[in-house]
Every structure is written in structure tokens, then in C-alpha cells.
């Protein structure tokens, strides 16, 4: 062997060993950076010596050529399914039939009977897959298909990180077919859906669908980009001997590098099995992946063979399912609710049905696009799903059960509460220098605060704890105040008299005085709280804080042009337009003026403009914000470099511009500024940036002065808080949120089920917070609540 071939082989061995420790043993052995270094060295050597590339090299997971269609694979040993147990009694019946099948003394009158050993495994909710190894090399991957014939998905399974391309150790049979489930962990699913939503791709209803959609891709590069995992639970065709029990066999496969469940346990007798079922059931929500039950298998393989099969299911195994989380019921009607910002949303009224132990009579339909996607009609039989505490959802329609008199769902033309017009929202998008407006999925009642529904919600929001924090004003009281026309805007709260309050239901002298005092005490809010309390569509607490921190005065926030707002962190063009039009609205202006005038509110404004804002403007960047058709950021940068100031650009001749830009773009710039109002708009933006203290010529630099600036955080394991929310909060404080732990990581937030990242953090001595500690860190140090 040449030196290069030797080095390549040594690198592969080392990388395989690290992969094994990482994915199978869950005990990472080297920092990511070291792994990456070895990987890049191997990639470079293989690029120089393509003749030395082998299919089992760790570099060969990226996904090969796309296929036109999947080939067929016949399963030598059929891929079976499992019988189900739903109740304890079903499990006892299964155990009795096992005992009698094995000729053991079954349970007698005294409750005795032998105790059969069962292997216990979680029932992963994914897709069954077969992986064929010949002489230790992965040669084929296949779906289950109908059990006898599946599809050849070899190129796709090769991209799954924890599927070994080559077996470890020694002694494996020449032919070894392992079987297991390919699934998508919950966190990966959330991230994938967020990514898909951002890029306008298809989002998936649940991790199972996402796993199925990702595995059945003709282009393996797509599969490679999806966070899939494999977990082995059995074998098919095997050319030699394997250990004689299910548990020992899986342990042996693990030693050869095949990932198996960390929850694998041995139970003696049915009581042990039930304890396992209850234990996993309790931990189900905090597992990193979805399961729909557990699987019990007679542990002794000879006993399995003796028990044999019934049609498509074995006599020696059973799936003990968790109570159904999906049920069928009838859609009685669709009603429309009006939210705080006027969004008119469809709500399904259902014939009540018990789903996983809870009666469900209403379910969300999200918006009219969702109604169209589901193709749902009133009268339909629908599938309802309830997951944990989440609001029940309509998952699908059963078309065969549609009655003849089913009625379509229409968005009302008038608001069901105030009768104002209902309009479809518009989406403003920008790409390649072009701004385009398209129809949004949300409909809004245009009545704003003249709509009682919006008014009530707006006031409930205004007084809420994280907004103006007026204690003692419950939802019911607010409804009464609005219904009795005592208030018609948040400003009216500050004009309420003792007599008016004591006249309300549930108020006496002490409570009335208390409420008046709470209203009085709310008159000095911080700027951020006040902006949040206004209830501007799409402006949550975080955005309110960004506005307050960056612009530091309400006057500036009120005047800010949309283009200027987009300079702020995390404010896109759409939100910027929402903010701008909120403050342009005459009624809103009146209410704000009243709050600051007659009502006597005094905002605790932040004073100085923050460095974060004033450091980010460049002429090129500003020209880019103008969205000159066919002129992108590269071109505006060149213009800025050539002309140096806005006035010079505005006065520039296109021939002059052609010195730096192609003719077509030079003409486009000239035409744009000759167009109505555009030069003026540009001047107004520039002027406002200057008024707001922008350090004009400075280049964009890192955000300094934020509390977590320069820190890298990692989130891992199952967290009850939505990861995107946690990430946003950390980023808002200036931190970076990374996907893997390295020596540079500042802190790891680890939920239950955290594996290798947590291990690595402890190895490197990095600070680890559990979710409760993380929440109190954000709350106590930075006044941030996660929910
Ligand atoms: S054993 C003959 N074990 O459940 C035994 N299946 O309902 C056949 N599954 O097609 C399968 N976790 O996709 C087995 N630990 C586990 C499993 C499991 C999930 C799936 C598998 C199978 C289906 C049967």
C-alpha cells in the first residue's frame, strides 16, 4: 500500500471509530473540531486520489445521483407487522397464549404460572427499513412495502448519519440483514419545519410524515439534508448464528456498530412489562422522539420459533399501544373568531369525542388556507389529533364519509361581531431587488377598535402582566366595561371613576380602590412595555424591546419609515409596514396622544440611541433598501463606492453609472430615481437615518454592548419551550445559538434525553443548565419569560 492509501485507511478507521462512539455508544470521544479536521483531511486526499474512494468511506454519505424511480426489493424473510394490545387485559391474554404455546403451566386458579422473559422496546413512530450487510459492508437498504416486496432506497439510507456503512469489530455473519425503524427526532422535525416554512417549502404535519417524506426522495441529497435516524429492533436474513435471545442479539448488533434503543430492557413476567409500559408512558413527552407504544417480544429466540406466526403477525410479540391520540368525529359547523389584531379565524365545532382521555368539542383550523388544504366541508367526518397540552387539531377529512348535504366553508364578508368588512391580508416580499405583494393566509376585520371583539382583546392585552400590568382587571370585567360602553379605548381606562367601578359585578369598596391604585401605578411603563401593550400586529415583546432599545424614544418609533425600521435586528419589511401603518392610523394616534396627554402616562424612555442601531448604516445598504428593480446588493454597493453620497447618486448620469454597472442596471437606477417620488423617498430615508444618529459612513460591525454578545449557546434534549423561541431570546441578548458543542461553547441548555452534546459539554467542562435553571437565568438576569 502506498503512503497515501495507508493514511486514507487510517483516517477512515479513526473516523468510523469516532462515529461508533458518537452514534451507537452515545459517548463522543473527540471534539467536533478534531473530527472535522480528520474528515477534511480524508476528503482532500480522496479528491486528489479519486481511484482510492470506496463506497464505505465516511465521506460518501452526502447523497449520490438522483434516481428516476426506486427499484424493487424482494424480502427473503417477510417483514411482518405486530398485533396490538390496548388494555392490560389484552397483555394478560397475550402472555397466557405465549405460555400455553410454550407448554408452560398457565395461570391456574391460584394465579400462579411461569414467568416468561420478554424484551421490552419502545415502539418508534417512523418507517420500517431493512439494511443488508454483506461481508460487513452495507450493500442495500429497502422499505417494508407490502411486507414481501419493498423499494430499494440504498442511496437514501446511506445518508443517514447513524447507519454504519461498514460493520465494526469482527465475527459478523457473511450475510446480515438488520431491521429497524427510520425516524425523525422531535427537535430535528421542528427545525426542519421552521426551515421549510422560511424557504417556502412543504411543512410536515408530524415527525412520522416528515421521516416518510424524507426517506422516499428520489434525490438522496434531499434525504441527506434531513435529520433522520435509524434504530434497529431485529434481523431478517442471517447466514450464521447469532446469540440466542432478543436482548443478547441486539447487544451483539450494537457491538458491531448498529444503533439500538437505549430503552431496551429485559422483563420477567407480565407485571414487569406493565411497569415498563407505565414508566415509558410517563416519560413519553420528554423523549427526543415520538413513540406510539412499546413492543414486548419473547426473549428466547428458540421459543419465538416454536410460537411461530399467524398470517402477518408473530405469536411471540405484541405492541402495547398508548391510548389513541387521534379520533374520528363529525364537523358540525365552522365558526369565525375575531382576535386581538382583527384576524378572523375559523374554529371547528365538533360532535364531542374523547381523544386520549379528554373530551374535545372544538379544534383549530388555523386559517382559510388550511381549510382549503384539508378540503374540509361542514358535515364531514374528520380526524382529530390531540398531542399533549396542544390545542386539538383537525388533521384530515375522511372523504368516503362525506354526506350529500355537506356544505363548503366560506369566510364571512362581514365581521361576525361588528359587521365591518373582512379583508384578506397582503404579504410584501422582496427578492432580487423586487418588492412583490401577494395574498396572505389571514383575513382581518377592518373595524379595529370599533369592533367589540378586537377592543376587548386589545384591552385584555393592554392590561396584561407583561404589558401595562394592571392587576385586578380580569377578562370578565373588561368585557363588562366594553359591553356597558364605559370604555372604548385603552385610554378610557385612565378616566374610570370610583362610582363606575363599584357599579361593576364583583366590585366592592376595597377592590374598587385597589383597581384605581393599580391603574394609577401603571402610569410609568418602560418604553418597551408600552410599545408591546399597544398590540401592534406582529409586534411581540421581543420586537417591542428591539424598537425601544434601538430607537430609544416613542417619538422616533412613531415616525420611523418602514425602510428605516428594517435596519433593526429581526425586523423584516412586513413587520416594518405593520408598525408604520399602525402609527399612521388616525384613531391609533388619538389614543396614543390621549394616553400621553390627558391620561398622564410617562414613558421611561431609554434616552440615547443604541450603538447597535447607529453602527449599521452604509450608503450601499441604504440604496439596497430602496428595492430598485433588477438592482441587487452587489450593485448598490458598487454605486455607493463610486459616488460616495446619495446626492451624487441622485445627480449621476447613467453613462457615469455604467462605469461600474452593466448598462441595463445603470439605466434601471437612473429610471428609478427619475420616477415619481423615489428620489424624495430616498432623501427622506437618509435624512431620518441621520436624525436618528446613524453613523453614516461606518461599515456594519458586530453588535456590541448586548449582554450575551460573543457567547455561543447550544440547546439540546427535549425542552418544553419551543426551540425557536428559546433561540430568539438568546439571539436577542446577543448570543449565537449553535448546533454542536465545541470548546468555544459558553453554555449548554440540556433537556431530558440529551445525549452526546451533554456528554461533550461535561467532558469539556462547559456550563450546563437544565430547563428550569435556564428559565430562571432569563427571568432573573434579563427579565425574559419564555411563555
Ligand atoms: S418488531 C415481527 N419492534 O411497528 C416483528 N417493530 O406495527 C415486527 N416498530 O412494522 C416488528 N418499533 O415499523 C418491532 N421495537 C420495535 C418497533 C417496531 C416500531 C414498527 C415497525 C413495524 C410496526 C408494526
TrEMBL record:
GO MF annotations, alphabetized: DNA binding; DNA ligase (NAD+) activity; metal ion binding
One example of a Gene Ontology biological process annotation: DNA repair
Catalysis: reaction(s): NAD(+) + (deoxyribonucleotide)n-3'-hydroxyl + 5'-phospho-(deoxyribonucleotide)m = (deoxyribonucleotide)n+m + AMP + beta-nicotinamide D-nucleotide
Keywords: DNA damage, DNA repair, DNA replication, Ligase, Magnesium, Manganese, Metal-binding, NAD, Zinc
Residues the entry annotates as binding NAD(+): 32-36, 81-82, 121, 144, 181, 297, 321
InterPro entries in alphabetical order: BRCT_dom (IPR001357), BRCT_dom_sf (IPR036420), DisA/LigA_HHH (IPR041663), DNA_ligase (IPR001679), DNA_ligase_AS (IPR018239), DNA_ligase_CS (IPR033136), DNAligase_adenylation (IPR013839), DNAligase_N (IPR013840)
Cofactor(s) needed for function: Mg(2+); Mn(2+)
Signal peptide: none
Pfam family, one: OB_DNA_ligase
Enzyme's top EC category: ligase
Spans traversing the lipid bilayer: none
Binding site residues for Zn(2+): 415, 418, 451
Positions of the catalytic residues: 123
Taxonomic superkingdom: Bacteria
Function: DNA ligase that catalyzes the formation of phosphodiester linkages between 5'-phosphoryl and 3'-hydroxyl groups in double-stranded DNA using NAD as a coenzyme and as the energy source for the reaction. It is essential for DNA replication and repair of damaged DNA.
HAMAP family: DNA_ligase_A
Family (UniProt): Belongs to the NAD-dependent DNA ligase family. LigA subfamily.
Listed name of the protein: DNA ligase
Species of origin: Ectopseudomonas oleovorans (Pseudomonas oleovorans)
Taxonomy of the source species: Bacteria, Pseudomonadati, Pseudomonadota, Gammaproteobacteria, Pseudomonadales
Amino acid at each position: 500500500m502506498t503512503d497515501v492509501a495507508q493514511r486514507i485507511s487510517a483516517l477512515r478507521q479513526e473516523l468510523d471509530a469516532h462515529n461508533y462512539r458518537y452514534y451507537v455508544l452515545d459517548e463522543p470521544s473527540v471534539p467536533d473540531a478534531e473530527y472535522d479536521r480528520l474528515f477534511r483531511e480524508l476528503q482532500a486526499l480522496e479528491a486528489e486520489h479519486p481511484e482510492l474512494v470506496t463506497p464505505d468511506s465516511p465521506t460518501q454519505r452526502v447523497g449520490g445521483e438522483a434516481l428516476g424511480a426506486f427499484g424493487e426489493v424482494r424480502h427473503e424473510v417477510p417483514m411482518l407487522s405486530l398485533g396490538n394490545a390496548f388494555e392490560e387485559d389484552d397483555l394478560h391474554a397475550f402472555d397466557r397464549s405465549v405460555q400455553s404455546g410454550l407448554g408452560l403451566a398457565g395461570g391456574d386458579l391460584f394465579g400462579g404460572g411461569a414467568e416468561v422473559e420478554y424484551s421490552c422496546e419502545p415502539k418508534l413512530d417512523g418507517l420500517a427499513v431493512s439494511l443488508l450487510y454483506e461481508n460487513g459492508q452495507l450493500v442495500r437498504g429497502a422499505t417494508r412495502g407490502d411486507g414481501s416486496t419493498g423499494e430499494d432506497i440504498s442511496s437514501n439510507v446511506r445518508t443517514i448519519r447513524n447507519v454504519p456503512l461498514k460493520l465494526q469489530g469482527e465475527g459478523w455473519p457473511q450475510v446480515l440483514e438488520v431491521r429497524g425503524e427510520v425516524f425523525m427526532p422531535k427537535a430535528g422535525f421542528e427545525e426542519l419545519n421552521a426551515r421549510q416554512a422560511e424557504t417556502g417549502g412543504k411543512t410536515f404535519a408530524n415527525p412520522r410524515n416528515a421521516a416518510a417524506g424524507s426517506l422516499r426522495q428520489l434525490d438522496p441529497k434531499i434525504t441527506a439534508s434531513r435529520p433522520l435516524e435509524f434504530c434497529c429492533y431485529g434481523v431478517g436474513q442471517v447466514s450464521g448464528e447469532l446469540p440466542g435471545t432478543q436482548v443478547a442479539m441486539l447487544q451483539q448488533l450494537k457491538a458491531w456498530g448498529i444503533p439500538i434503543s437505549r430503552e431496551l430492557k429485559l422483563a420477567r413476567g407480565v407485571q414487569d412489562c406493565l411497569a415498563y409500559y407505565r414508566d415509558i408512558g410517563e416519560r413519553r413527552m420528554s423523549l427526543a422522539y415520538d413513540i406510539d407504544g412499546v413492543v414486548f417480544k419473547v426473549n428466547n429466540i428458540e421459543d419465538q420459533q416454536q410460537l411461530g406466526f399467524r398470517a402477518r403477525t408473530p405469536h411471540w410479540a405484541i405492541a402495547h399501544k398508548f391510548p389513541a391520540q387521534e379520533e374520528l368525529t363529525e364537523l358540525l359547523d365552522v365558526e369565525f373568531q375575531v382576535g386581538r389584531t382583527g384576524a378572523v379565524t375559523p374554529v371547528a365545532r365538533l360532535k364531542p369525542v374523547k381523544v386520549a382521555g379528554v373530551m374535545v368539542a372544538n379544534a383549530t383550523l388555523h386559517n382559510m388556507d388550511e381549510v382549503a388544504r384539508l378540503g374540509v366541508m361542514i358535515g364531514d367526518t374528520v380526524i382529530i389529533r390531540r398531542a399533549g397540552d396542544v390545542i386539538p387539531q383537525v388533521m384530515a377529512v375522511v372523504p368516503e364519509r362525506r354526506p350529500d348535504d355537506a356544505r363548503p366553508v366560506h369566510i364571512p364578508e362581514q365581521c361576525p361581531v361588528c359587521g365591518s368588512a373582512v379583508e384578506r391580508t397582503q404579504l410584501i416580499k422582496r427578492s432580487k431587488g423586487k418588492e412583490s405583494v401577494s395574498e396572505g393566509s389571514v383575513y382581518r376585520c377592518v373595524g379595529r377598535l370599533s369592533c367589540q371583539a378586537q377592543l376587548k382583546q386589545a384591552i385584555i392585552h393592554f392590561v396584561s402582566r407583561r404589558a401595562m400590568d394592571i392587576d385586578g382587571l380580569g377578562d370578565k370585567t373588561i368585557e363588562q366595561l366594553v359591553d356597558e360602553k364605559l370604555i372604548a379605548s385603552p385610554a378610557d381606562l385612565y378616566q374610570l371613576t370610583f362610582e363606575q367601578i363599584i357599579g361593576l359585578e364583583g366590585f366592592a369598596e376595597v377592590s374598587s380602590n385597589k383597581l384605581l391604585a393599580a391603574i394609577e401605578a401603571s402610569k410609568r411603563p418602560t418604553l418597551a412595555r408600552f410599545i408591546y401593550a399597544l398590540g401592534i400586529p406582529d409586534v411581540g415583546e421581543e420586537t417591542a424591546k428591539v424598537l425601544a432599545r434601538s430607537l430609544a424614544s416613542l417619538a422616533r418609533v412613531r415616525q420611523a419609515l418602514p425602510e428605516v425600521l428594517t435596519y433593526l435586528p429581526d425586523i423584516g419589511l412586513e413587520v416594518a409596514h405593520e408598525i408604520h401603518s399602525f402609527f399612521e392610523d388616525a384613531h391609533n394616534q388619538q389614543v396614543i396622544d390621549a394616553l400621553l396627554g390627558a391620561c398622564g402616562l410617562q414613558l421611561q424612555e431609554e434616552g440615547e440611541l443604541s450603538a447597535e442601531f447607529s453602527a449599521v448604516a452604509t450608503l450601499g445598504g441604504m440604496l439596497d433598501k430602496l428595492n430598485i428593480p433588477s438592482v441587487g446588493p452587489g450593485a448598490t454597493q458598487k454605486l455607493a463606492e463610486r459616488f460616495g453620497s446619495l446626492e451624487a447618486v441622485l445627480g449621476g448620469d447613467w453613462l457615469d453609472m455604467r462605469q461600474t454597472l452593466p448598462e441595463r442596471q445603470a439605466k434601471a437606477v437612473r429610471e428609478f430615481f427619475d420616477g415619481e417620488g423615489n428620489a424624495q423617498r430616498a432623501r427622506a430615508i437618509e435624512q431620518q437615518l441621520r436624525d436618528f444618529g446613524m453613523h453614516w459612513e461606518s461599515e456594519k460591525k458586530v453588535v456590541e454592548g448586548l449582554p450575551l454578545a460573543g457567547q455561543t449557546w447550544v440547546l439540546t434534549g427535549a425542552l418544553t419551550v419551543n426551540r425557536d423561541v428559546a433561540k430568539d431570546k438568546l439571539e436577542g441578548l446577543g448570543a449565537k445559538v449553535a448546533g454542536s458543542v465545541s470548546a468555544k461553547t459558553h453554555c449548554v441548555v440540556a433537556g431530558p434525553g440529551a445525549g452526546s452534546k451533554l456528554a461533550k459539554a461535561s467532558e469539556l467542562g462547559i456550563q450546563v443548565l437544565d430547563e428550569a435553571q435556564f428559565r430562571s437565568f432569563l427571568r432573573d438576569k434579563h427579565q425574559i419569560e419564555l411563555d
